[in-house]
Every structure is written in structure tokens, then in C-alpha cells.
């Protein structure tokens, strides 16, 4: 019984803990995936960087529909957490049951977020430069 109480306390703490940035989640998950102490659906070695793993992940998603569906389900679940203001106990249990899929999805989210942020920054600067140069823009 004391183990159950400790586990319950840990679950409650996890659900109430501050949110982590996607990049931090991905860094921890990449380290966990590299240790390989689980039944892996993807081979990841110590030399691979985040972008290498995401490249292999996307390649596999293109050629393995069931795998792609699993990743997309996890991404949908993650979006639901964000829309609901955070995880519920049932969400945490689902994550625990599919920890590898969550880890892989977190890598994908982190890389896409970094790429989008970099692109938006450049796009923003380019648009500002265009507005400075051309005060009136005619469309069509």
C-alpha cells in the first residue's frame, strides 16, 4: 500500500507540475530513446542528433501507415492536452502505455517548432523590409 500511495502522490505532482517547453521534453525523450531500455519500434543510436532521428521518423511514417497513425494519434492527444489546459490522469495513463510514441512525437514537435520559429523570424524581417521599401502594394 505505501508504494501505491507514493505512486499516486507522484502522479498528482506530475499533473500539477509546470509545463515544459517542447524542446526540453524532446531532449529528455531523445536521451531516453537512446538508452534503449524498452521494446523499440525504431533503432536510435548514440551518434544520432534530433534532426537525424526526425528524418528517419518521417521516412518511416511515409512508408508505414500504421506507424504514422500511431504518431498522429499521439499528436492529437497532445493537442487535446493543450486545448484542455493540461493533462488529466487518463491522458497520463495513455502516455505511459505508449511512451515510445510520445517520445518520438515530442521529437517531431520540437524540430517543427524550431523550424517554424526560425522561418517566422526571417519572414517577419522580410515583410518589414518590404513595407519600408514599398508603402503601397497593389494586389492583382
Largest sheet, if any?
Answer: none
Element-by-element helix/strand order: HHHHHH
Looking at the structure, what is the overall shape? globular
Q: What's the total count of β strands?
A: 0
- Low-pLDDT windows of residues: none
Mean pLDDT: 81
Q: How much of the polypeptide forms β-strand, as a percent range?
A: under 5%
Question: What share of residues is helical?
Answer: over 70%
Helices and strands: which structural class? Answer: mainly alpha
Q: Any idea what the radius of gyration is?
A: 20 Å
Separation of termini? 72 Å
> Total helix count?
6
Structure description:
The chain is mostly helical and 140 residues long. Helix content is 76%, strand content 0%. The protein has 6 helices and no strands. The longest helix is centred in the C-terminal third of the chain and has 35 residues.
Distinctive features:
single chain, mainly alpha, globular, 140 residues
Secondary-structure map with pairings?
Layout lengths: L1 H15 L5 H14 L14 H14 L1 H19 L5 H9 L1 H35 L7
Helix pairs in contact: 2-6, 3-4, 3-6, 4-6
Quick synopsis:
With 140 residues, the protein is mostly helical.
